[in-house]
Design goal:
The structure holds two protein chains of two kinds. Chain A has helices spanning about 95-110, 135-150, 175-180, 210-259, and strands at about 30, 40-45, 50-60, 75-80, 120-130, 160-165, 170, 185-190, 195-200, 205. The N and C termini of chain A lie far apart (about 70 Å). In chain A, helix 2 packs parallel to helix 4 (about 210-259). Chain A has a five-stranded mixed beta sheet. In chain A, strands 6, 7, 8, 9 and 10 form a five-stranded antiparallel beta sheet that branches. Chain A has a single domain (about 30-259), classed as Ribosomal Protein S5, domain 2 (2-Layer Sandwich), CATH 3.30.230. Chain A is about 35% helix and about 25% strand. Chain B has one domain (about 10-255): Ribosomal Protein S5, domain 2 (2-Layer Sandwich). In chain B, about 25% of the residues lie in helices and about 30% in strands. Chain B contains five helices and twelve strands. Chain B has helices spanning about 10-20, 100-115, 150-160, 200-205, 235-255, and strands at about 35-40, 45-55, 55-65, 80-85, 125, 130-145, 165, 175, 185-190, 195-200, 210-215, 220-230. In chain B, the strands form three sheets. In chain B, strands 1, 2, 3, 4, 5 and 6 form a six-stranded mixed beta sheet that branches. A four-stranded antiparallel beta sheet of chain B has the order 10-9-11-12, sandwiched between helices. Chain B has a two-stranded antiparallel ribbon with strand order 7-8. In chain B, strand 1 (about 35-40) and strand 2 form a beta hairpin. The radius of gyration of chain B is 19 Å and the shape is elongated. The chains are: A alpha+beta, B alpha+beta.
Chain lengths: ~260, ~260
């Protein structure tokens, strides 16, 4: 948070520098099943953010001592690739990404039916290809779609969005400039169906009234994102179905050829 | 890359097909899988590409900054190439410090670019001995189904060709395209039993005995080579691999544009 800044990020008509209204999400694109090697995967674009998530597992747990005899553990690794930000980031984990990985793992562990897979690990790899504020939320959105794409039983999908304060106004889904020069940032992840909050962080400064407004905006946006997540999975299932039908036809042809 | 065990049934299947001059996916021995090249895929990089060869997919970014040259090349920019085998790409990749395989991969890709003098590093000198452009070519493997050497080289070359030197942001005048001189293309031949084949899939790599990566330039001249794995190649096979690399290189170079 750059604190109170003279930088004008919202004009007289309530329009932001990227042309959005204060309660408007950036354009969002979600695609499921984008990688061949992974058990499940998803690609998410939110504004200028580009994020990939891949799921492996349930599989043998590494390190071994992390194994839980009663349930699976969910290990998410959030990582920014070196050229995803304006100054090259040194490859490998730093303190920020370790923290974010932990929070996303915890959120995902709640929705996965981990008791179905004792002693295993479900590994989720989140790679930020291009960053423009809100990557942890984009990562969460991608991770839950990738888990569903892997066919892992879950309570629900997890949409996520950041709400913030810019020029003394509560605004939805901060972009990079708003994040850098804004006054508050409040990332939220939740299950819209039940209203359960799975991730919440905040930095900056919000009054109680501002927080209430921010939360209301965030919840509404999560419902919108949730619909996009479901839609991505439906599109993926349509393709999987078509492929399965293709495959059931093929053996018959093989038999004919050999006969 | 013999990364994990392969079942005997699969091994026999591949061997049997090869004895008849066939491959599992029906390709000819010297046929490359479908290639797709996208450039400018990441706005935060000076140049970038996303390349697919069959199911193998890589993303490459070029980041440039101003820094000091090496003492022995005071009038040349600096090139650093790094490949990351991230766990996203394969169940057999693990996070952690680079293993010998990814170091070999980085170095072979680097050699093709460096030895072909693809980047005109002298034009990336700002003030001899003091200030030059530092180029980081970072390669991330996103999906692994064999032939990383060629996929990473192709991605790196495409990303470099698309790069714009960020002079303005560094107070050095107007931005300009990366100065390049040629388009190196690497083609890897794999030996299985006594047969050679190009652009191997992961299954083919698992049963391979030897590998030869050959990088050629626009004139068809050799710029870099690397033999890998513990098998032996005959001189005849070496010649075939070079001839194939040159021939296929012409087609692949057209795709890069």
């Amino acid at each position: 948070m750059g604190g109170n800044s003279d930088m004008k990020l919202i004009d007289e008509n309530g329009i932001r520098i990227d042309g959005r209204k204060i309660d408007e999400l950036r354009p969002m694109k979600i695609e499921a099943g984008v990688l061949k090697s992974a058990d499940g995967s998803a690609y998410v674009e939110i504004g200028k953010n580009k994020v990939l998530a891949a799921v492996y597992g349930p599989r043998e747990c590494h390190p071994r001592h992390m194994q839980n005899p009663a349930k699976a553990i969910v290990q998410c690794k959030y990582n920014m690739i070196s050229f995803s930000v304006s100054d090259r980031k040194r490859p490998g984990p730093d303190r920020r990404s370790v923290e974010i990985s932990k929070l996303i793992s915890e959120a995902m562990e709640y929705v996965v039916f981990t008791e179905n897979y004792p002693r295993t690990s479900i590994d989720v790899y989140i790679e930020v290809l291009q960053a423009n504020a809100g990557t942890r939320c984009a990562g969460l959105v991608a991770a839950s779609v990738a888990l569903a794409d892997a066919g892992i039983p879950m309570k629900d999908l997890v949409p996520a969005v950041a709400v913030g304060k810019v020029n003394d106004q509560v605004v939805l889904d901060l972009n990079k400039e708003e994040d850098n020069y804004g006054q508050a940032d409040l990332p939220i992840a939740m299950i819209p169906r039940t209203g359960e909050v799975l991730l919440m962080q905040m930095d900056g400064h919000l009054t109680q009234a501002e927080f209430d407004k921010a939360l209301e905006m965030g919840v509404k946006a999560c419902h919108e994102i949730y619909d996009l997540q479901k839609d991505a999975l439906r599109r993926r299932y349509a393709i999987v179905n078509a492929e399965a039908e293709e495959e059931t036809k093929e053996p018959a042809e093989d038999v004919n050829e050999e006969a | 890359m013999a990364r994990s065990i392969v079942s005997e049934i699969k091994r026999d299947h591949i061997h049997k097909l090869i004895a008849d001059g066939k491959r599992v996916d029906g390709r000819a021995w010297d046929q490359v899988r479908e290639i797709s090249i996208q450039t400018n895929v990441v706005e935060t990089a000076e140049g970038s590409s996303r390349v697919k060869i069959g199911n193998t997919e890589v993303i490459v970014g070029v980041k440039m900054s101003v820094g000091e040259p090496f003492a022995d090349t005071p009038n040349k920019g600096v090139l650093s190439t790094n490949a990351e085998l991230i766990p996203m790409a394969s169940p057999s990749f693990e996070s952690g410090p680079p293993d010998p395989e990814s170091i070999e991969l980085s170095r072979v890709v680097d050699r093709g670019i460096r030895e072909s003098q693809m980047i005109d590093l002298e034009k990336l000198c700002i003030e001899p001995g003091k200030k030059v452009w530092i180029n980081f070519v970072d390669i991330y493997v996103l999906d692994f189904d064999g032939n990383l050497f060629d996929a990473c080289s192709l991605g790196a070359v495409a990303a470099i060709k698309s790069a714009i030197v960020p002079a303005k942001a560094n107070g050095l005048g107007e931005d300009y395209p990366m100065p390049t001189t040629c388009t190196p293309v690497s083609v890897t031949s794999l030996q299985i039993e006594n047969s050679l084949l190009v652009d191997p899939t992961l299954d083919e790599e698992k049963v391979a005995t030897a590998r030869l990566t050959v990088t050629t330039d626009d004139n068809g001249d050799l710029r870099a080579m690397q033999k890998g794995l513990s098998g032996a190649l005959t001189l005849e096979q070496v010649k075939t691999a070079i001839e194939t690399s040159r021939r296929l290189g012409i087609e692949i170079r057209k795709l890069i544009g």
